Amino acid sequence: xxxxxxxxxxxxxxxxxxxxxxxxxxxxxxxxxxxxxxxxxxxxxxxxxxxxxxxxxxxxxxxxxxxxxxxxxxxxxxxxxxxxxxxxxxxxxxxxxxxxxxxxxxxxxxxxxxxxxxxxxxxxxxxxxxxxxxxxxxxxxxxxxxxxxxxxxxxxxxxxxxxxxxxxxxxxxxxxxxxxxxxxxxxxxxxx
Length: 192
What we know:
alpha+beta
């Protein structure tokens, strides 16, 4: 699968509160980043619980998936979380997020997608999934707030487009905040 994840824990902690996952079935690819609140073991536990929940509920609509994850994480610190579902047949990406994860599509359909306010596991008022076109060759770059807000990922794409692992690692190395955990997930829609 054309996907790569790079992550880095906050200095001073062996645990990383930012986690990622991806899954593929016959028709869809699902991408997820979860950022456990704070740092350390409890943040990692919350983020991994979110990733595990998403992986076990891939057939649910995003609104139901987030609502179930919110209930499942109620006794944890909670997470900021973004989930993108790529429908290969339709050529679309549907994204929903709660908290401060960010998504950027780079290519024919370049744009940024936003998350709604709240905490998965702590409550949120609304969740508004957004569906956009995703052309073959488009890149999807998902980041947690451990990557600087004004960091321009486009500058790396042409130089590292063929190696997603290198691209994810370069974004992480150059964009990471020294005061936070960080994770980057990069996906490329292949030509079918």
